[in-house]
Amino acid sequence: MPNPSQNALELSMFSCLSDNYGYLIHDPVSGETVAIDTPDANTILKEAEKRDWRLTQIWNTHWHPDHAGGNEAIKTATGCHISGPQEVASKLEAPVDNVLSGGEVFKLGSHDVHVLATPGHTLGHIVYHIPDQNIAFVGDTLFALGCGRMFEGQPDIFWKSLQKLRDMPDDTKIYCAHEYTQANLAFALSVDPDNPDLQAYGETINDKRGRGEPTIPATLGTEKRANPFLRADITDMQSRMTGGMDAVATFAELRKRKDNF
Questions:
Q1: What burial class does residue 127 get, using C-beta atoms within 10 Å of its C-beta: 0-12 exposed, 13-18 middle, 19+ buried?
Q2: Which domains are seen in the chain, by residue range?
Q3: Angle at CA 133, nearest 5°, toward 12 and 117?
Q4: How large is the average pLDDT for residues 74-98?
Q5: What is the mean pLDDT of the segment spanning 47-66?
Q6: Quick one: how far is CA 65 from the chain centroid?
Q7: I need a labelling partner for 1 at 20 to 30 A (CA). Which of 43, 66, 105, 140 fits?
Q8: What is the spatial distance between Cα 61 and Cα 49, in angstroms, rounded to a whole number?
Q9: Which residues are catalytic?
Q10: pTM for this model (two decimals)
Q11: Is the pLDDT of residue 4 over 90?
C-alpha cells in the first residue's frame, strides 16, 4: 500500500450549523479542493478563502438539507463540479453534475476515490473512501459509537451497509458528519456495559469533550470493538438484545432502542 505521507492530501475540519462538521480536502499537487457535503455554504466558502484553496468540487453523501443544502450557493460562487447520489437532485432539487450510485472509482489528483453504496439512513446514501490516505467520509451512515437513523432503509439493508464499512482496514480514519459521540457513548454503555474496549474509549471521548475537542475522526478498528451497531453479529450482543436472534434482528433492536433512548 502506498505510504499516505507521500503526496498527502490536506484536510480541514470545522464546525457548521449546530453539530455538523464541514470538511475540505485539498490536493496540493493538482490544486483541487473538495467540500464533503455542504451544510453551510458561507462557512465552507470562508474556510476555503482563509486557506487560499480554490474550491473545485463538492462530494455529497446524501440528500438531506444539512448535507446538500449549500450546493447551489457554492456552485454559483465557484463554478465547482458536484458529484453525489441522484436523490440530491430528485428529493432536494439541489444541483448535481455527476450522479454516483456506488461502485465507481475516480481520481482526486493521483489518489483513487472509491464510492460505496451504503443505503439505510437514506436509500441513495454513499460513502467516499480514499484508501491510500486511510480515510473515509461516511456522512450519516456511521458515527463514532453510533449510526444514522433509519429514515428510508430497512434493517437488513442498513446492516449490509455497516458490514461494508466494517470491512475496511482497521486503521481507516472515519470522518462522520456530526458530533454525536457523547450521546452515543451513553447509549452504547447501556447496551454493552461490560465491554472494556468501550469503557476505555469512553474515557478518551469524555476527556476530549471536556477540553472542547472533537471526537472525530474515529478509528475504524476502535469502532469495531466498541460501537454496538457494528457488533450486531456478536453472540453476547445478540443474547442481550434479542435472546439470541440473528444479526439483522439484533441491529433492528439496537436501532429501535437508540431511537427511544
A1: buried
A2: 8-99 (3.60.15.10), 101-261 (3.60.15.10)
A3: 90
A4: 97
A5: 98
A6: 16
A7: 140
A8: 23
A9: 62, 64, 66-67, 121, 140, 178
A10: 0.96
A11: no
